[in-house]
Amino acid sequence: MLKNLPASLKKTFLNLRSELLLAFQQLGIKADLVKTHVMFTTDCGANIVKALSLYKWVGCACHQLATVLRHVFAVTREGQTFMDILLQTEEDDEEGIVQRQPDVDGVENQLETVVQVNKQLEVMSKVVVYLKRSGLNGELTKAVYQENDTRWNYRLNSLRSVLRQMDEVMAVLTRAGKSSLLEDIDADLLAEVAGFL
After folding, report:
1. How confident is the model at residue 100 (pLDDT cuts 50, 70, 90)?
2. 166 lies in which domain range?
3. Cα–Cα nearest to 156, from 111, 108, 124, 132
């Protein structure tokens, strides 16, 4: 069931709960039945979790995975990835010695992979942005999708939209004299990432 709040209404937990119960009431379903017979699945926004705290609720696994991936692939203002932060040097409280955390189970190798993936995703994003802004997207058989943080599967959709027509994207960019945008793309690595996602 989808329900949109009126634009003038703030998305507080009380407003969400009231609008939700109103929607069920309009369907002829009493509030006590909602408590005992309805299971809600939503994202984990604090307002919606609190609004549904009186009811049966489970967080959407897809939203939760997207949140994890957003943090893994995120790069801070200082240019650090989540993995960089995990592997930062630490000061030993007892001896005051700064030491690097040991490479446990190849974590440093995994860090390098995350760095490579981040670079590839950044390059791919620039290609998509260029195709959209230049209007060249219209010359492709199918549109490429720009990353959009509000959609849980945005990164995968964006990757797939380019990878599925990489030859065509390359031809369009070559005709426009912009094939250099693809020079740093490792299509095999991106295909592996898409398969993972």
Report:
1. very low
2. 108-196
3. 124
Residue 144 and residue 137 in contact, taking contact as beta carbons nearer than 8 Å = yes
Q: Say yes or no: 169 and 112 in one domain.
A: yes
For residues 124 and 158, is the Cβ–Cβ distance under 8 A? yes
Q: Which two tokens stand for residue 131?
A: 């195709």
Residues 183 and 122 in one domain: yes
Domain co-membership, 116 together with 54: no
Residue 101 inside a domain? The answer is no
Q: Grade residue 120 by pLDDT with cuts at 50, 70 and 90.
A: confident
**Which residues face 75 on adjacent strands?**
81
Confirm whether 35 is domain-assigned. yes
Q: Is residue 126, in this structure, part of any structural domain at all?
A: yes
Express each pLDDT in 143-191 by its tens digit: 898 876 666 677 788 889 999 999 999 999 999 999 999 988 898 988 8
Phi and psi angles of residue 41, each rounded to the nearest 5 degrees, phi first:
-130, 120
Count up the domains in the chain and report the number: 2
**H helix runs in the chain, sequence order:** 13-26, 31-37, 46-51, 61-73, 82-86, 107-134, 154-163, 166-175, 187-196
Whether the model clears a pTM of 0.85, i.e. scores above it, the answer is: no
